[in-house]
């Protein structure tokens, strides 16, 4: 066995199969997942190669104990049932292992979170995990306007959710003190600066850390933005380019959306990575002036390619309901045309 193996073992066939199916569908990682209701068959399977993680019910692990076969499993999550006799015995039973407990009757989401927590806390044995996604052509969509309070982020989220209905999509935001976490109702301890670090220093475990850091709303994945403008400024074009490459080639994302609110190092080069760029405009003299200055900077510095793949538009006053949804879909269709011309 050359893949990263996760096994589930419980004598209750229905429970075992359902947990296996949930982990297969919700852990967006390339685990090879197997389920066993018979500990003897589990042991036979383990002789074929290393099992990276064993998720096993308390009653089943006790059967392994009597068979004195448990020591070969180095990463174990025990699904506790009723008894509470494990404390004090764990080090003796698994002297070389990473052992965790969770109630067998916990929601499947909690068990999946426990799997990720163990994998990212003790990464030995989990190198090489990739994203369980579609590989092939990926598209990078940028959003930038020099106008303040334009509604860019809320529009981007709406477009991202539309794309996520059919495609694996992730959103990256370059904005300090962003309200994005409150919009997603998910505060995060780690953000894009942490993901960039893992992309640089723990590349073989990138997808594993991505699963821990990413948040999701209505199918759209997103990475929490950096906290301060200084952190945004320290993000370089080279790091963003490599991050996008990993998201597309390793994690299998079909669309990467960039919310360009502030100016990381190599700002225009990052825009140059995009297949299409959406720029919000408004009908007043002050905003026309700001947009003209932005366009002049592009022209004076040889960024005609950015101009060529930019779609300018005005956001409707009413930003909800069926008419707004149709407007967003029309913008996406226009962007697809631009991307097809540039392909």
Spell out the key features of this protein:
343 residues; alpha/beta; Rossmann fold; 2 domains; 7-stranded mixed β-sheet; 5-stranded parallel β-sheet; 12 strands; 45% helix
Word description of this protein:
The chain has 343 residues and is α/β, with parallel strands linked by helices. The protein contains 15 helices and twelve strands. The protein has two domains: 5-121, Rossmann fold (3-Layer(aba) Sandwich); 139-342, P-loop containing nucleotide triphosphate hydrolases (Rossmann fold), CATH 3.40.50. Helices cover 45% and strands 17% of the residues. The strands form two sheets. The protein has a seven-stranded mixed sheet, sandwiched between helices. Strands 2-1-3-4-5 form a five-stranded parallel sheet, sandwiched between helices. Helix 5 packs across helix 9 and helix 8 packs antiparallel against helix 9. The longest helix has 21 residues, at 322-342. The mean pLDDT is 87.
Strand order of the largest sheet: 8-9-7-10-6-11-12
SSE topology string: EHEHEHEHEHEHEHHHEEHHEHEHHEH
Q: What is the residue-averaged pLDDT?
A: 87
- The helix content is 40-55%
Strands, total number:
12
Q: Approximately what portion of the residues adopt beta-strand conformation?
A: 15-25%
Q: For the record, what CATH class of the largest domain applies?
A: Alpha Beta
Q: What are the low-pLDDT stretches, counting only 5+ consecutive residues below 50?
A: none
CATH topology tier name of the largest domain = Rossmann fold
What distance separates the N and C termini?
39 Å
Number of domains: 2
Q: Which class do the helix and strand fractions yield?
A: alpha/beta
- The helix tally amounts to 15
Output the CATH homologous superfamily of the largest domain.
P-loop containing nucleotide triphosphate hydrolases
């Amino acid at each position: 066995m050359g893949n990263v193996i996760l096994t589930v073992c419980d004598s209750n066939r229905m429970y075992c199969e359902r947990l296996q199916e949930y982990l297969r569908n919700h852990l967006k990682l390339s685990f090879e997942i197997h389920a066993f209701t018979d500990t003897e068959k589990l042991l036979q399977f383990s002789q074929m190669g290393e099992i990276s993680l064993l998720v096993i019910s308390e009653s089943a692990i006790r059967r392994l104990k009597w068979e004195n076969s448990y020591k070969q499993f180095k990463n174990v999550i025990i699904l506790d049932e009723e008894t509470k006799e494990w404390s004090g015995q764990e080090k003796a039973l698994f002297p070389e292992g990473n052992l965790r407990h969770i109630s067998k009757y916990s929601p499947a989401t909690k068990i999946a979170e426990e799997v990720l927590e163990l994998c990212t806390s003790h990464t030995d044995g989990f190198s090489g995990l990739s994203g369980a996604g579609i590989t092939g052509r990926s598209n990078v969509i940028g959003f930038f306007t020099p106008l303040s309070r334009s509604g860019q982020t809320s529009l981007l989220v709406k477009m991202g959710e539309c794309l996520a209905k059919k495609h694996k999509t992730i959103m990256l935001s370059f904005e300090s003190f962003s309200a994005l976490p409150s919009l997603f109702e998910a505060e995060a301890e780690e953000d894009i600066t942490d993901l960039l670090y893992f992309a640089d220093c723990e590349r073989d475990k990138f997808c594993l850390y991505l699963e821990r850091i990413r948040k999701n709303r209505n199918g759209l994945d997103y990475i929490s933005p950096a906290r301060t403008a200084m952190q945004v400024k320290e993000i370089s074009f080279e790091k963003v380019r490599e991050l996008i490459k990993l998201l597309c080639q390793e994690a299998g994302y079909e669309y990467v959306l960039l919310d360009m609110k502030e100016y990381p190092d190599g700002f225009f080069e990052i825009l140059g990575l995009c297949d299409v760029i959406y720029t919000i405009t408004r009908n007043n003299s002050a905003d026309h002036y700001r947009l003209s200055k932005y366009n002049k900077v592009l022209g004076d510095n040889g960024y005609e390619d950015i101009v060529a793949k930019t779609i300018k538009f005005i956001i409707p006053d009413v930003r909800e309901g069926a008419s707004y949804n149709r407007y967003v879909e029309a913008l996406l269709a226009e962007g697809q045309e631009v991307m097809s011309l540039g392909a």
